[in-house]
Design goal:
Its EC number is 4.1.2.50. This is 6-carboxy-5,6,7,8-tetrahydropterin synthase. Belongs to the PTPS family. QueD subfamily. The protein is of the alpha/beta class and about 150 residues long. The chain has one domain: 6-pyruvoyl tetrahydropterin synthase/QueD (Tetrahydropterin Synthase, Chain A). It is about 25% helix and about 35% strand. It contains 3 helices and 6 strands; from the N terminus they run ββαβαβαββ. It has a 6-stranded mixed sheet, sandwiched between helices. α2 links the parallel β3 and β4. The chain is elongated and about 60 Å long. The two termini are about 25 Å apart.
């Protein structure tokens, strides 16, 4: 059977700040993110199987990415933990529910790599993550490809 790629698109709104950055993105600001997740596999060949003809149920991919990425980051403020911002983080968490503190600079590049690592662990047997594209704006995006990361 042929190898097939499936892609599902996701959207979420997220704010972030780039601690220590020397440009305007040092300030808290937000983006309307578009996330494209592409998986690869062979369609199920057994006509007796409920997923006959499918590489993966789009609904299952939606549940995985929804739980790991969209539910966590939609309408969240993402910040890198630094030696200087502990008090700010405590204050924000005291007032807002969706403050995500991470151990990396929350750039588009770093987030796409982290998202790939999380999604890969959850895919069913026989399905591999092929690529992820994360648009931070309509014209700016970062991409991760399995073939570049073996």
């Amino acid at each position: 059977m042929a190898a097939i790629r499936l892609t599902k698109e996701f959207s979420f709104e997220m704010a972030h700040t780039l601690a220590g950055y020397d440009g305007p993105c040092r300030e808290i600001h937000g983006h309307s993110y578009k996330l494209f997740v592409t998986v690869k596999g062979e369609p199920v060949a057994d006509a007796a199987e409920p997923k006959y003809g499918m590489v993966m149920d789009f609904g299952e991919l939606k549940r995985i990415v929804g739980r790991l990425i969209v539910d966590r980051y939609d309408h969240a403020l993402v910040m890198r933990a630094t030696a200087d911002n502990g008090e700010l983080i405590r204050t924000l968490r005291g007032n807002y529910a969706k403050i995500e503190v991470v151990d990396y600079q929350p750039t588009c590049e770093n987030m796409v790599a982290r998202f790939a690592a999380a999604i890969e662990k959850e895919l069913p047997a026989g399905v591999e993550l092929f690529s992820i594209r994360l648009h931070e704006t309509a014209t700016s995006f970062a991409e991760w490809f399995r073939s570049d990361n073996r």
